[in-house]
From TrEMBL:
Residues 7-138 form the VOC domain. It comes from the Bacteria. This is VOC family protein. PROSITE patterns: VOC. It comes from Pseudonocardia petroleophila. Pfam families: Glyoxalase. CDD domains: VOC_like (cd07263).
Amino acid sequence: MTAMDLSIYNCFLPHDDHEASLAFYRDTLGFELRNDVEYGGLHWLTIGPVGQPGTSIVLHPPAADPGVTDDERRVISEMMAKGTYASINLATPDLDGTFEKLQAGDADIVQEPTDQPWGVRDCALRDPAGNMIRIFEVN
């Protein structure tokens, strides 16, 4: 079997306040807004790192899915509030410099830069919806 030519195009993270999420990803992380689709008062935001047009994050209202029951909506809301529903890993060549900027931007820091026993160096924070963001140092 030959290798497939695949790349990551987009991933989905939930949000419960599109304005707070946009401000965080745009103003704190420096991502650009690529699309803002509104339907019935709900917003689907497509954002991504500047200079990487082929990779995006779609911030979506998780309760808008018609296949989700009321009980599931309640569980999703509870998990988002605890920060256990969704996560994403990002990378930077300068973890300390990135972390300093995050601290200056009042990010919800979970873990300062740490050398992990499995060989990576990373930090962690949460976005306004409670999503866990880990940032790894890569060279």
